[in-house]
Amino acid sequence: MYICSCMYVCISSSGVPKVRFVKVVRRYRGFRGGVLKNMAWSLETSEADVGIKSGLIRPAAEDFAKEAVEALKAEKVIAVPTDTLYGFACDACSVEAVNRIYEIKGRKHTSPLAICVGDVQDIERFAVTNHLPHGLLDCLLPGPVTVVLRRGDSSILEKSLNPGLDSIGVRVPDCNFIRVIARGSRSALALTSANLSGKPSSVDIKDFENLWQQCAYIYDGGVLPSGRAGSTVVDLTTVGKYKILRPGSAKEETVEILERHSLLEDLQLG
């Protein structure tokens, strides 16, 4: 672990550039024993120029979580790092914001969005979990896994999110910044990869530079180390069964955990 101070240039309400120093902590641990990386923010010369001109780029540091929450409550879209890829996030209960994400990505509304919550215990507010083996979700999450669950009648999600589907993909990334934002929003975040639909996923904010102006803020967590595979997506809607829908970056670890909890692969599902 190391601690350093990074210079950050922002624009005040009067239009005057100001310099701030932000303490950045960087550390790493393995998956579920597990994958946690508090990502350091690096500001190169070209990015500094963009930040001065547009005021859009911020470090992915807790000092800036409050303004991110305020942007979400104002139905804006922000770009954030996760433990896998950069993503576009908005309030999952805002129809206007969700539609804006689809517009930014050029994505069809028939393609569902996942949600992100701050803590594992929040999942039951949005999806059915009482059929799962005790402790399973705590072993999988936080981590680079998307669990697909049924919404159920008690879900507080807006019906307009992924209409026609009775299931929802849920993430609790092993990334402190986005989890702080999710907790602060007191809701769920709609979350999808920060790229145009059909284009490569982003592991650096430069990868989606052409979309910066579509966001209220871009939170820079540096170059993410996990590659472009994204999260492992697993369907857990059937009692006692699982189905890997996308291998992602943690398939082997995920399958090991599922089978340790006596779940069987559902070869017939979907």
Give an account of the 3D structure.
The protein has helices at 45-54, 65-73, 95-105, 136-140, 176-185, 251-260; strands at residues 2-11, 17-26, 28-30, 35-37, 57-59, 78-81, 86-91, 114-116, 145-150, 167-171, 189-193, 217-220, 232-235, 241-246, 264-265. By secondary structure, it is of the alpha/beta class. Helix 2 crosses helix 5. It is globular, with a radius of gyration of 18 Å.
Features:
20% helix, 270 residues, two-stranded antiparallel ribbon, alpha/beta
What is the fold's blueprint, element by element?
Layout: E1 2-11, E2 17-26, E3 28-30, E4 35-37, H1 45-54, E5 57-59, H2 65-73, E6 78-81, E7 86-91, H3 95-105, E8 114-116, H4 136-140, E9 145-150, E10 167-171, H5 176-185, E11 189-193, E12 217-220, E13 232-235, E14 241-246, H6 251-260, E15 264-265
Parallel strand pairs: 5-12, 6-12, 8-10, 9-13, 14-15
Antiparallel strand pairs: 1-2, 3-4, 6-7, 7-11, 8-11, 9-10, 13-14
Helix pairs in contact: 2-5
